[in-house]
Design brief:
The chain has 300 residues and is an alpha/beta fold. It has helices at residues 8-30, 45-60, 76-87, 107-111, 125-132, 141-154, 172-181, 196-201, 253-259, 270-289, and strands spanning 4-5, 35-41, 64-70, 94-97, 161-165, 185-189, 205-208, 226-229, 233-236, 245-248, 262-263. 46% of the residues are buried. Bound molecules: nicotinamide-adenine-dinucleotide (NAD). Nicotinamide-adenine-dinucleotide binds next to helix 10. Residues 142, 165-168, 170-172, 189-191, 193, 196, 209-212, 230-233, 270-271, 274 line the site of nicotinamide-adenine-dinucleotide.
């Protein structure tokens, strides 16, 4: 391996420390405790793990954590009533509805019912529009974490060629907007892109957000390029024992790391940054709600 490893776990630790320091100052100087409410509908095991982890980390940085666990059969109007109550709760500065929602619920309607200034996931249509027009917004956590790591590694991204593989509303599209905001020349590739290898070979920055294990091989990577691997894929790992699995990204780590200048590992890269950015967004939302100075470097 010749690439520099971008250690998202360590970076996330530094972000959490900065958030905790800001929270302590808000409490000491203004008597304000930022509050994050997470709403979970149903009992999807992966969602339960995420929600538990989010709640634990929220408390660890000194913020108030509220969890609303609703039955899988919760009606749309009852879920909207919970969101409305949180919108009007002055002790809650961030609201997150854990996705995916059960099929009978209208995800867009639910997300757009969150007060935009409390939408710490950055998925509300107002925040999407603000980000797209270069205005101050709540920025989706995963792409925000990627941007922070890229800025930390490169300083300025101005003029760099960036390819984002994947066009989801959660990762690909906001990632492209953020890179454009930092003056990259951005290409968004997706499942219908012709000759993806050729497109990726032009990039100084490759962000892979597809969900296909190890689909990007090293010979697609321009020597010295930076690879940000958002993918989280679970593969069987019989070598670790019966029924065991291992996590891999969308990039084939070994061959990419041999060519790239820098790369994020999976696990330990983008993943830990996502929850750290959720905490960062909550403290940012709290500062904005109270017209106080925001922590530096924690948003786009
Ligand atoms: P998604 O399924 O919504 O979108 C995948 C995108 O990949 C689509 O836009 C599609 O066009 C594109 N795509 C599919 N096949 C392709 C191909 N063969 N070539 C090029 N593009 C192709 O997924 P998502 O929600 O954006 O998530 C992507 C990955 O990132 C998943 O592995 C997910 O688990 C992971 N993820 C990680 C974090 C994190 O915190 N690290 C957060 C969100 C998502």
């Amino acid at each position: 391996m010749s690439a520099t490893l971008i250690d998202g776990k360590a970076f996330a630790g530094r972000v959490r420390t900065q958030v905790a320091e800001h929270v302590a100052r808000l409490k000491a100087d203004h008597g304000i405790t930022p509050g994050l409410a997470v709403v979970l509908v149903g009992e999807d095991p992966a969602s339960q793990v995420y929600v538990r982890s989010k709640g634990k980390q929220t408390v660890e940085v000194g913020m108030k954590s509220v969890e609303h666990k609703l039955d899988v059969s919760t009606a749309q109007e009852d879920l909207l009533a919970v969101i409305n109550q949180l919108n009007n709760d002055p002790e809650i500065h961030g609201i997150l509805v854990q996705l995916p929602l059960p099929d009978h619920l209208d995800e867009d309607m639910v997300i757009n019912a969150i007060a935009p200034e409390k939408d710490v996931d950055g998925f509300h249509i107002s925040n999407v529009g603000l980000l797209g027009t270069g205005q101050k917004s709540m920025v989706p956590c995963t792409p925000l974490g990627c941007l922070m790591m890229l800025r930390d590694h490169h300083g300025s991204l101005s003029g760099m060629d960036a390819v984002v593989i994947g066009r989801s509303n959660i990762v690909g599209k906001p990632m492209a907007q953020l890179l454009l905001g930092d003056s990259c020349t951005v290409t968004i590739a997706h499942s219908r892109t012709k000759d993806l290898a050729d497109v990726v070979r032009r990039a100084d920055i490759v962000v892979a957000a597809v969900g296909r294990p190890e689909m990007v091989p090293g010979d697609w990577i321009k020597p010295g390029a930076t690879v940000i691997d958002v993918g989280i894929n679970r593969l069987d790992a019989p070598e670790k024992g019966e029924g065991k699995t291992r996590l891999v990204g969308d990039a084939d780590f070994e061959s990419c790391a041999a060519v790239a200048g820098a790369i994020t590992p999976v696990p330990g890269g983008v993943g830990p940054m996502t929850i750290a950015c959720l905490l960062a967004n909550t403290v940012t939302a709290c500062c904005r709600a109270n017209r106080l100075e925001e922590p530096e470097g924690l948003t786009a």
